[in-house]
Amino acid sequence: MSFNADLAARVRKLLIHKTGYSERKMFGGLCFMLHGNMCGGVLNDDLIVRVKPDEYAASLNRPHTRKFDFTGRLLKGFVVVRPKGCCTEKSLTNWIVLGTRCALSQPAKTAGGKRRRI
After folding, report:
1. E strands, 16-107, in order
2. How far is residue 28's CA from residue 3's CA, in Å, rounded to a whole number?
3. Do residues 35 and 108 touch, judged by C-beta distance below 8 A?
4. Which CATH class is domain 5-106?
5. 8 A C-beta contact, residue 39 and residue 100
């Protein structure tokens, strides 16, 4: 597994106080979850952010972003943010807000992956 530990620590600092927070190894990196739903992650030196469908196109128009093409397969709704796009606390916080909004818009999942209401 390869991920930038410093970037992961910065993301963790923004999310760890939220109810339902957890981490999971996924995609060869580290994913951050809220109530079992992915809000973002760190893969190598990049930030991965899951965004709501109505925010996807606008997110990709932001600087230093690209679509998440994992193993040749596009994962719609996921945006890769290169290091320059999340190098300041303000820019990282803005991305985490988008990811948090997406995760919290989904029904919560139980430990077995099934959805539940919160």
Report:
1. 21-26, 29-34, 37-43, 46-50, 65-70, 73-81
2. 8
3. yes
4. alpha beta
5. yes
Q: Are 81 and 95 in contact (CB under 8 A)?
A: yes
pLDDT digits (tens, 9 = 90+) for 8-19: 999 999 999 999
Query: Residue 90 and residue 73: Cα distance in Å, rounded?
Result: 31
State the residue for tokens 């932001």: 62
At 5, give phi and psi (nearest 5°): -65, -35
User: Cα–Cα distance between 38 and 23 in angstroms, integer?
Assistant: 9
Tokens 């893969």 identify what position? 43
AA letter at 75: L
pLDDT score recorded for residue 20: 95
Nearest of 7, 27, 26, 99 to residue 69 by alpha carbon: 27
pLDDT of residue 65: 98
pTM: 0.90
